[in-house]
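Extended Data, panel c. Modelled sequence:
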Amino acid sequence: MRFITKNIAKLDSLIRNSKKISIVTHYNPDGDAIGSGAAMYHYVKSLDKQATFIIPNPFPKNIEFAVEDVEYLIAERTFKQAKQTVLDSDLLLVVDMNNNTRSGDGLERVLNESSAKKVLIDHHVKPDKYDLSFSYPKSSSSSEVVYNILSRLTKQKVLSKEISTALYLGIITDTGSIAYSSDDPDVYSVLHYVLKSGIIASKLHQKIFDTYSFDRLKLLGYAISHKMKVFLKQRAAFIYLSKKELNRFHYKIGDLEGVVNYCLKLGEVDFCAMLTEREDKIRISFRSKDASINVDKFARKYWNGGGHVMASGGKSYESLDKVVKTLTQQIYNQDFISK
């Protein structure tokens, strides 16, 4: 990964000349959001800076270990405090999101209001303009980008165990345990140095992936056996779940992480989606097996979303039934195929 030397120097200067630093990530944070944010937090704290990790809303319990020694605020629970913390900061490090809108309505307004310098560290396409940007869409994860930044700032290949633990979480979750977004040799090089820090990868992997509750396992089985629609001729599939169904299985944040990928385990499927009904909208995740099916483009064109070429998201404010009908027609029309 090539970095412009002067940009690393600018970041170093911004961090060292700031007294209060806030790290902010996206709404519904995943492993990469928490991992990249926690890694930056540990680095900033190593310089004796006042730092706070601002997390928009609650995140899955299986990734809590990455923030055990991190000072963080859940903005959805303590919005006034989170807002004041951001507004009091000299520097904002925006990680794993390509624009302020992804932080949620409340935080977006605060980020826009802030007069602090803003630094973007991300791997999503089409980022907004920030004071300083480290945007690398070809990277496996934002955590991989963070590693490359920190190894240059510290002039060390092997970073602390705290930082490496967080980076391992981000990389291993955003690649599905190195199942995708992993064709570039650089990600293996980064993991090599992350493991040399002394972390026990097998134990971390168990914490991340082998902590399902009984309800979560039942929800997965139900989603696959009862709520998956397959379109063999179009080589597509999707899963759809209502609020009532989520409540039936005592849904908790993180319970649906990775479920959409089960559709792609079918040899006859190249495009898939998962629709989940929430309080105010339908959340949609899109996945594809091949870059010729650009789900980022599809999500932007039809579903108020975006993301990566082969992994993207969108939303709708119509009913679940209406979204199911619309997506079904789009699949019959093969609108998801890049043209």
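The first strand starts at residue 20 and ends at 24. This feature is highlighted in the accompanying rendering.
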